[in-house]
Amino acid sequence: MEQYSAILKKSGNQYLALCLELGVVGSGNTPTTAKKCLQEAIESFLEYARDEGLPDERPISIKELHEFLYYDDLFKEVKRKPESRIALRFLKYA
Hints:
With 94 residues, this protein is an alpha+beta fold. It has a single domain (6-84), classed as Double Stranded RNA Binding Domain (2-Layer Sandwich). 33% of the residues lie in helices and 17% in strands. The model has no long low-confidence stretch (mean pLDDT 82).
C-alpha cells in the first residue's frame, strides 16, 4: 500500500485528518477514529479515480491547506502578541 501524508487537528469536539496528496478528509471523535475514517476516504477516492480514469493524486493547494489549518480562527477573534509571530527566512538557490 502506498503511503500518504496527513495532518490531524482538533476542531471543536471533532478531530479532522487531511490527506495532503489527495485532498480528502476523515473525521471522528478521537484521533484514532479520524485516522481510520481518512484511510477509508483514501481507499474510496482511489477506487473512484481508477473507475473514472482520473489521476490518482490531487495535491491540495497552499490556500486549501491554510483553510484547513485556520478555519476555526475565522469565527473567533485571535489576539496574538507581536513577539509570538513567526519569522520566516527566504533562501536563494542558484
